[in-house]
Amino acid sequence: MSDTGLNEARLAHLRTVIEGDIERRLYHGAVIIVAREGRVGLQAAIGSADEQQTRPLRIDSVFSIFSVTKALTNILTLRAVELGQLALTTRVVDIIPEFSGGLREQITLLHLITHTSGLPMVFIPKPGMYIDRLDEIIAAICKHVHSVEPPGERCAYSPLVNQALLGEALRRTDPKGRSYRTLVDEDLLRPLGMQSTSIGVRADLKARHVIPDFRGNSPAEHLGHSNLGPNGAFEEEHAEMPWVGAVSTVPDLYRLAEMCRRGGALDGVRILSPATLELARRNWTGDKPNELYKVLAHKRGWQPAPAYIGLGFSLRGTAHCHHMLGTLTSPGTFGNYGAGSALFWVDPERNVTFVCLTAGVMESNDNIERFQRLSDIAIAAAE
Fold first, then answer.
1. What is the DSSP letter of 122?
2. pTM for the complete prediction?
3. CA distances in angstroms from 207 to 48, 196, 211, 232, 244, listed in the order given
4. Contact predicate 335/39, CB 8 Å
5. Which has the closest alpha carbon to 357: 28, 37, 36?
6. By CB neighbour count within 10 A (0-12 exposed, 13-18 middle, 19+ buried), where does 334 fall?
7. Cα radius of gyration rounded to whole Å, the chain
8. Does residue 147 contact residue 107 with C-beta atoms inside 8 Å?
C-alpha cells in the first residue's frame, strides 16, 4: 500500500483492465483518477480519442460530459435554495408562467431534481429542432411536453426536460440577471478552479476537445445552429444545454467531486453546506424503479433496480443489482454519469473518489457493466 491508502497493485490492475477493454475495441480510450482522502493513487490517460488510435488522450483532454452537466445544474439549484432565491417547494409554473396547464402546474423543483415530475422521458421536445439554445428549448417544452401522470407517482429519468427547466429557473431568478452559461461559470466553475470546464465548447478548449463518437449509440440527434452534423450541438461554442451541454476534464471533475466529498467546500471556497449535501445524499425515490432503466434492464433480462436518486445525485443504495457505481461500494456512494462515457462518484464511507471520462460512447447496458466492473476494482484498492 502507498501513502494514498490505495493498493498500488490493484490500481495497476485497474489500468490493465482498461487497456484490455481498448484492445478489444469496447471503447477508444479513457482518462481516470482514483483518490482516497484527497490523495491521488491513480491518474492516467489510456488509449486514444479515436477508433484508429491516432490521437492519444492526455490528462487534460476535454470531453463532452453529457448528463454529468446535470450535476452542475443541480448543485447550483441547491445553492440557490440555500441563498433563498429558490425553494424545493417552488412550483415551476410560478417561475416559468408559460409552463402552465394541467398537471404541470403541480410540478415543483423537488420533482424535477428527483426525476419524479410526471413528464415524459423525451430526448428532444420537438423532432428535428436545434437544441443548443436554451430559450428555444424552453419554448418547445412549454408547447409540446405535457404531463403523462401526476408528479411524485413514478421515477422516470428525464434526459432533457427537468434540467432544462431548472437551468431556466436559475436564470430567471438570478439577482444579477445573468445567462445560464455565465451563472455556471461565475458561481461554480471559477470558484472551484475548474479552468478547463465550460458550458459549450469555449474557444480556447476546442483544440483539446474530444468530439463525441456515438458509434450508433445515440437515441436522438443533437442538432446545433451551426449545422455541424447530427450531433453538432456538442461542438457549439455558445451552446446552453443545462442537461448535456458542458465540457470538462478529469482533473476538473475531480475538483467537483472532492468538493462534494469534503462537505461542500474545497480550498476554502464553500459551494454548498454540509446539511444540504447530507439531504442530497439521501434516497428520495424509495424503492421506485427508474422507468427508463427498467426498460433497459428488461432488454438484458436483468431485474430492474430501485432508482436510488437523491437531490440531484445517483446513489448506490443497498440492492444487489447491476449498477455503474459498483457492487462493492458503500450504500451511501453518490455521483453522476453521462451517456455511455462519463462517471464520477464518491464513497463517503471509505473516502474514495473516482472520476473517469472515456472516448467512444458505449451502449447503455454495456456501459453499466463496464463502469460496474471498473468501480468494483477501484473500491477494492482501498486498504
1. -
2. 0.97
3. 15, 12, 10, 16, 20
4. no
5. 28
6. buried
7. 19
8. yes
